[in-house]
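Flagellar assembly protein T N-terminal domain-containing protein structure dump, as promised
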Amino acid sequence: MRSAKQISLFVLFLLALSVGVQAEEQLHATHSVVLVIGTGRIYADNVAVARNRAISNSLVSAIENVVKDFLPLESLVQNFQVINNILYSNTEEFVQGYKVLTEALSGNTYRVMVQATVSIEKVQQQLSIAGIMIGKKSMPRVLFFIAEQSTEDSLPQYWWGEGMSAVKSVAENSMAGVMMKKGFLIINYKNLAQNLRNETLDELDHQEAVEILSLEPELDHQEAVELGVRVNADVVIVGKAIASKAPNIMGKNIKSFKGAVTVRAFRADTGEEIAFALQTAVSTNVDEVAGGRAALSDAGALAGKDLSSQILEEWRKEIKKLVNIELVVKGTANFANFVQFRKILNDISGVNRVQLKEMRLDEAVLSVDFQGNAKELADALMLKAFDSFGINIYEVSQNRLRIELIPSE
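structure tokens r here:
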């Protein structure tokens, strides 16, 4: 067995060169071959068990590497618990095969270097079933306009109404909670109504401002879109939530209540309707207020789930098809510059995967999966700042860029 020092140096070199390993048998569209390291602690001198732990650890890392390539950061953070349950706890379902390339014992720690083949198709399928956004496109910022009338209310309550800025809809709370778990960004409208009024008063005379901002509970979607644009919303959700007594009773005290939520979602940039949900729920309670609110909360949660799937489907349509672009990079003799170039390349929006295909004396060939074309990738690179060198993009063709790393003087 090789020494731990030799293997550590070998590992660091390989990891610096490649995030993933290019393999001839790799099915590019549906699979990813990745190089990972796993560790396992040795207890009671049981090396075999520690080795198995290290392999299991490496397979989780392999799936992690694949997921982070096509999942937006905010979605990854918001959905971490769900991802952990459906992916990391079932590695055998997504890892098509693996090879232990080398291994080392260091004190009471066992390490393995593993080349694993992960099914991108199966991973994406499970994420889609869970309603999790796929693709490096930012999740939409959502602004709610929900007018709610519960059993204790004589009139609808809505945050954009005069003197109602503190109103918080029960149904909206449930909808927002469900959507946040899916990775949506919810705009907090606390003080928003007054801020909008102040801005409008600055722009218009008082009478015009009153007419514009004295909005009714049955808000027109164009009015909602206009207000949403002011606060950089991507989607506005407009609707109503109503709680009422239901006919069923149990004895003298237990009553039933029905909550009904009707909502529509509109794109803020076009005003186009992209989702609709109508959900009802029934609750029972001895207390009329609590019963009505519980019914609204349950109906809101159902509506949130329904809206999430429809909006995500719309957002996925805008994720560009991945294009494989070859980058021929000269000036790689300065290895530190090349490592920095690869890191910045990986961080460009739309870049889903960077793989090292070939390494020569002063030249490297990279394979890049990009949501766009070669010209768009070149434009994105030109906007990046590098610490100790610059870049010269001297050839842009349909699926290839030729780039030279130029040391700073």
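The longest strand covers residues 235-250.
lmk if u need the other ones
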